[in-house]
# Entry
Amino acid sequence: MTNETIIEELNTLLRGTYMGIHSIEHYIQKVDDEYVKKVFQSMQQEIKIDALKLAERIQDLGGVPADDEGFSGSMHSFMHKLMLADETDPIVEDAIQGFEKYGVQYSEELVRGDLDPKSRQLAEEVIDNNRKHAEILRNHLI
# Structure
């Protein structure tokens, strides 16, 4: 495994993290329930910290971190915003699905085998945060 491979894997995870930040922004804009809005804002701050950590690790490896979700992520974000429901429960359900599908399952597949120990630990922290966010939503908001 080369640094270039590790950097590309981390950048893919970083682009996905940016998608998560934007998705949560959509939820914050749509949801009327102030408690749910605060929960989403807190999660968004944690995800932004994850993005900063990923960017720093990429730089430490000599790479240039992605600064957005990329073209396909941007298109997904646009469609997500258009199709998002207006009611709180469907918004929360959408967020849970997003965290589980993209933040956990897809991310785990992405980083399987191509990372050095330090990068793997960081990726696992990011994935664990996504898992935690899905659990918080499932336990406290539904």
Notes: The radius of gyration is 15 Å. The helical segments are 3-30, 34-60, 70-83, 88-110, 117-141. The chain is about 80% helix and 0% strand. The CA atoms of residues 71 and 77 lie 10 Å apart.
